């Protein structure tokens, strides 16, 4: 494997969130390489497992992980690993979280209650994180302090609004996480 000597630091980052929040879209919008995506058609086999009520138009789902790469500078590269959002895949988190410095936790402001199991896993694996409140066309812009309060987050946890379909918006959410990591980890 060739490693560019100009790159002095590479960082493993998880992009996490509940089912249908936009993890695959985020990595796809921002990756400078063709992202690895393990999307499969949703079939009848997922009935009773996947709640599509919040995402009625969703036809595919991640069955393993997503992977992308983003260079923030000549010396800092982020390797992005998107986790599946379904409860039945949570065993994969242990392996994916090994070596990760942090996590961008994507949340849908209309389905915040679905974020609590994800936040529990992020905290269980000791990951520093930032919250990206993904803005969907049909959702109102909730004040970020209300989202922070609803998720019971500390004041130190960054909460930013983002649109994962937009490269610049996704980049800004990841930059916020990296800045938080630099402050937290010294």
Automatic annotation (TrEMBL):
Coiled coil: none annotated. Keywords: GTP-binding, Hydrolase, Nucleotide-binding. InterPro entries: Gliding_Motility_GTPase (IPR052705), Gpn (IPR004130), P-loop_NTPase (IPR027417). Signal peptide: none annotated. SUPFAM superfamilies: P-loop containing nucleoside triphosphate hydrolases. GO terms for molecular function: GTP binding; hydrolase activity. Belongs to the GPN-loop GTPase family. This is ATP/GTP-binding protein. It comes from Streptomyces muensis. The lineage of its organism: Bacteria, Bacillati, Actinomycetota, Actinomycetes, Kitasatosporales.
């Amino acid at each position: 494997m060739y490693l560019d000597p100009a790159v002095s630091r590479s960082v493993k980052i998880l992009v996490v969130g509940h089912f249908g929040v936009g993890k695959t879209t985020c990595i796809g919008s921002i990756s400078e390489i063709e992202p690895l995506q393990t999307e499969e058609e949703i079939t009848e086999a997922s009935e009773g497992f996947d709640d599509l009520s919040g995402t009625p138009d969703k036809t595919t789902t991640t069955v393993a992980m997503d992977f992308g790469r983003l260079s923030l500078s000549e010396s800092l590269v982020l390797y992005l690993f998107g986790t599946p959002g379904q409860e039945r895949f949570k065993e994969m988190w242990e392996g994916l979280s090994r070596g990760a410095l942090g996590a961008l936790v994507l949340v849908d402001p209309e389905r915040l209650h679905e974020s609590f199991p994800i936040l529990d896993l992020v905290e269980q694996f000791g990951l520093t994180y930032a919250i990206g409140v993904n803005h969907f066309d049909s959702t109102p812009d909730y004040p970020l302090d209300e989202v922070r309060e609803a998720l019971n987050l500390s004041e130190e946890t960054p909460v930013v609004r983002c649109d994962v379909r937009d490269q610049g918006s996704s980049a800004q959410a990841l930059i916020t996480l990296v800045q938080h990591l630099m402050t937290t980890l010294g």
